[in-house]
Amino acid sequence: MTMSGNLPTVTASRPKGFTSVMARRLEPPDALDFFCTPPWATRALCKHVLFESGGPWPMPLSAWEPAAGEGHMAEVLMEYFQQVRASDVFDYGCGYEVGSFVGCGPDVATVPSVPDWIITNPPFNLACEFASRAISIARAGVALLVRSAWAEGGDRYRDLFSQHPPALIAQFAERVPMVKGRWNPDASSATAYAWFVWRTPAMGETRFMWIPPGQRGELTKRTDRGRFAREADNTG
């Protein structure tokens, strides 16, 4: 399959403008819902869902991460996908495309080429809008990392789940700690998270699975702390 140059082929080099997270000083407006995804949580999706042995998913070639932030998820997707596009509504100084994934107007990110998968940790209050647009774009599927409580709610059921039920809800059996504005590899959490996954075309009934405990220890690489973490006092 031939893809646009906006989905760069994965190589050993980083995207143009890439610097380590610890070296970045640019901070987003306080209003942005910026919670960095632990690298191991994205690897768990790839290992247990997208690339599971004998699973129902076609082999992914390309992915778009439209809420990329500082690259905590996009950089991990590059370990698995042949091509990865990263964008965000705010410029975090990583060399990613700047554009909103939802809404309307000239600030909305365009779709110059259709990715196989759209995978992201969306702002919680815009997650339905992210899901709806992603489902309308992605060639093979969509995966959103959201709080498990996102499955609840009459409005969400009416506007999204009743029309586009996910093919799979992959619930983490362990907690996925996230803090605002950075990744803290030593953080703990009382919030439960799950991957909500859609297939294109739709699969019908929703399947439920657990992502087994121990992924944080098993899928965290020794290099992750140096690549993705920064101290709280380095945010100014």
Can you identify the CATH class?
Alpha Beta
**N- to C-terminal separation?**
44 Å
Main beta sheet: 8 strands, mixed
CATH-derived topology:
Rossmann fold
Query: What's the average pLDDT?
Result: 82
How many structural domains can be distinguished in the coordinates? 1
Which architecture name does CATH use?
A: 3-Layer(aba) Sandwich
Put the structure in a nutshell:
By secondary structure, the protein is of the alpha/beta class. It has helices at residues 39-50, 74-77, 127-137, 154-161, 215-219, 224-228; strands at residues 62-65, 83-88, 97-98, 117-120, 141-147, 168-172, 193-199, 207-211. An eight-stranded mixed β-sheet has the order 3-2-1-4-5-7-6-8, with helices on both faces.
Give structural notes:
It is a single chain. With 236 residues, the protein is α/β, with parallel strands linked by helices. The protein has one domain: 3-Layer(aba) Sandwich (Rossmann fold), CATH 3.40.50.150. Helices cover 19% and strands 17% of the residues. An eight-stranded mixed beta sheet has the order 3-2-1-4-5-7-6-8, with helices on both faces. Strand 4, helix 3 (127-137) and strand 5 (141-147) form a beta-alpha-beta unit. The model is unreliable at 1-27 and 232-236 (pLDDT under 50).
Q: What attributes does this structure have?
A:
alpha/beta; 8 strands; disordered C terminus; 6 helices; Rossmann fold; disordered N terminus; 8-stranded mixed beta sheet; globular; 236 residues
